[in-house]
Amino acid sequence: MRRATLYRYQLPLVPGTVLRDRRVAEREGLLVQLRHGAAEGWGEVAPLPGFSAETLAEAQAAVQAGLRVWQAGGGFSGSGVPSADWGLSIALAELTGTLPEAADFTTVPLCHGDPDALFARLAGQPLAKMKVGLYEAVRDGMLVQLLLEALPDLHLRLDANRSWTPEKARQFARYVDPALRARIAFLEEPCRTPQASRAFAQESGIPTAWDESAREAGFRVQAEPGVTALVVKPMLLGSLAQVQARIREAQAAGLAVVISSSVESSLGLTQLARLAAWLTPGSATGLDTLSLMAAQLVRPWPGSALPLRPVADLQEVWSC
Ligand SMILES: O=C(O)CCC(=O)c1ccccc1C(=O)O
Ligand SMILES: [Mg+2]
Question: Is 280 in the pocket of ligand 1 (CB under 6 A)?
Answer without folding.
Answer: no
